[in-house]
């Protein structure tokens, strides 16, 4: 049993926090939203009235916050985690944030005497609820060894990607590939259909051929071939355009800093930006096929 402070009980954090409590850990939960704290209490955690109260006797702090500015503020403001956590507490941030913000957070934590790991996830709210997330972890070896048993209560694939920020690097590179491959898959279905194939026939052929990819076989953007994909429920997310766009912005800015050529990544960013600007930020990202077909 580990004493855990969990901060950020939103769409993702709620399920993750519940899984830690279910695994027998003593979880103190905090969020700015009181209803989220009440929900966490219903799933086995104990609510806290502030960050200070949540982390006061924590061995590990887990956070699941919207973006880098929230993470830096929650950990390093004068009333934040680093000011109130006992020495030796491990910081484990699972939010998706910029590589540079994650490295900055790890540096500031180290200067204050704490180890901080970045541990962003893949798997969405369904994975968070089911405890089947994939974690991509950056930070020192001893921090990874301490974090692993807790991550296993929330996920099924746990990867140590290297030093601080490498978890975020893996996450944004993966999601950039996902954004690109979904547009490519949508274009391939549209082309095949325009040339006279029905979608199922093209799926049967391409999913057994060299064009096969996750966007086709697990998350197919046309209704029918993959019954669980959002295409079968009018592109209700799933993983919304706005969230894909957040990750593509992070990838574009990281690529700029690193001098990496991501021409297709930038094109994907532009295509999802247009969708968002047209008011489709809440559409599942596979709904880009509607744009490719000229339907929206
Ligand atoms: P969310 O907006 O539902 O939850 C964030 C929570 O943080 C909210 O409950 C909010 O009240 C709380 N919060 C914000 N500032 C706070 C503060 N200062 N102190 C305490 N609580 C604070 O977001 P989400 O969908 O749960 O996503 C969280 C993170 O996970 C994001 O970085 C996102 O990119 C990443 N992510 C999301 C998904 C997904 O499918 N939703 C998938 C993978 C990764």
| Discrete helix count | 14
**Approximate helicity band:** 40-55%
- The N- and C-terminal alpha carbons lie at a distance of 52 Å
Specify Rg, calculated over alpha carbons.
20 Å
The secondary-structure class comes to alpha/beta
Multimeric organization: single chain
Q: Strand portion, in percent?
A: 5-15%
Bound molecules: nicotinamide-adenine-dinucleotide
Secondary structure tally: strands:
9
Q: Write down the overall geometry.
A: elongated
Mean residue pLDDT: 98
- Which spans of ≥5 residues are poorly predicted at pLDDT below 50? none
Named CATH architecture of the largest domain = 3-Layer(aba) Sandwich
- Sketch the topology as an H/E string, one letter per element: EHEHEHEHHEHEEHEHEHHHHHH
CATH H-tier superfamily of the largest domain: NAD(P)-binding Rossmann-like Domain
CATH level-3 fold name of the largest domain: Rossmann fold
Q: How many domains in all? A: 2
**Level-1 CATH class name of the largest domain:** Alpha Beta
Strand neighbour order, sheet with most strands: 3-2-1-4-5-6
* Largest β sheet strand count, sense and barrel closure: 6 strands, parallel
């Amino acid at each position: 049993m580990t004493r855990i402070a969990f901060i950020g009980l939103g769409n993702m954090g709620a399920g993750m926090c519940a899984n830690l409590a279910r695994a027998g850990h003593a979880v103190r939960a905090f969020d700015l939203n009181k209803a989220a704290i009440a929900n966490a209490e219903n799933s086995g955690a104990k609510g806290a009235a502030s960050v200070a109260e949540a982390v006061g006797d924590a061995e590990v702090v887990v956070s699941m916050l919207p973006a880098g500015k929230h993470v830096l503020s929650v950990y390093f403001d004068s009333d934040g985690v680093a000011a109130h956590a006992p020495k030796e507490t491990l910081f484990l941030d699972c939010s998706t944030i910029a590589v540079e913000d994650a490295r900055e957070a790890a540096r500031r934590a180290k200067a204050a005497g704490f180890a901080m790991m970045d541990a962003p996830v893949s798997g969405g709210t369904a994975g968070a609820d089911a405890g089947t997330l994939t974690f991509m972890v950056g930070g020192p070896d001893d921090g990874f060894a301490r974090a692993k048993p807790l991550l296993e209560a929330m996920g099924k694939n746990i990867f140590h990607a290297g030093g601080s920020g490498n978890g975020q690097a893996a996450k944004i590179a993966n999601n950039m590939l996902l954004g690109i491959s979904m547009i490519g898959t949508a274009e391939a279905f549209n082309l095949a259909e325009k040339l006279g194939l029905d979608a199922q026939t093209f799926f049967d052929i391409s999913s057994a051929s060299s064009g096969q990819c996750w966007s086709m076989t697990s998350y197919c953007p046309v209704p029918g071939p993959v019954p669980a994909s959002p295409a079968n429920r009018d592109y209700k997310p799933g993983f919304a355009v706005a969230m894909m766009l957040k990750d593509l912005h992070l990838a574009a800015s990281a690529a700029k800093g690193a001098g990496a050529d991501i021409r297709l990544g930038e094109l994907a960013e532009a295509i999802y930006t247009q969708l968002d600007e047209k008011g489709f930020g809440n559409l599942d990202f596979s709904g880009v096929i509607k744009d490719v077909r000229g339907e929206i």
